[in-house]
Amino acid sequence: MEFTYFKDVRQLPHTIGFFVELAQEPGMLGTTSRHHAKQRLVDALSRMNEQVSCDYARGAIGMPTIRVVKPGTFTKYRKWRGEAAKIGTCQMKVPVVMGDTIAQAWIMNRVELEI
């Protein structure tokens, strides 16, 4: 599994958005698993960062968004960025935090499921 996250500003309150490429097909995730994924993500983020817990509890950030991208998206992303920068694909990394709105739009075109 690979992922990156970004500030999701589509609605208020803004939240943390994730682009995730799964190791398994999204259809193999059970309905219950999908239903609880966001809450499990909030719980995990809250354990790692107390500020996330506080901000979520007071409504300053919303429930995280999770967008599953098509298989191979991050490989294609590295190729796309490498070609644009005229450097080898193996030197390109998917950023942990994706602030580049052009890159976000590029990946958004490859979303196959929003949980």
Task: Describe the protein.
- The structure is a single chain.
- The protein is an alpha+beta fold and 115 residues long.
- 41% of the residues lie in helices and 20% in strands.
- The protein is built from four helices and four strands.
- The protein has a four-stranded mixed β-sheet with strand order 1-2-3-4.
- Helix 1 crosses helix 2.
- The protein is globular, with a radius of gyration of 15 Å.
- The mean pLDDT is 86.
The gross shape turns out to be: globular
Give the helix proportion (percent range).
40-55%
Task: Give the integer mean of the pLDDT values.
Answer: 86
Strand content: 15-25%
Number of helices: 4
Read across the widest sheet, the strand sequence of neighbours is 1-2-3-4
Q: Give start-end ranges of low-pLDDT stretches.
A: none
Distance between the termini: 16 Å
Topology, number of strands:
4
Determine Rg (CA atoms, Å).
15 Å
Main beta-sheet annotation: 4 strands, mixed
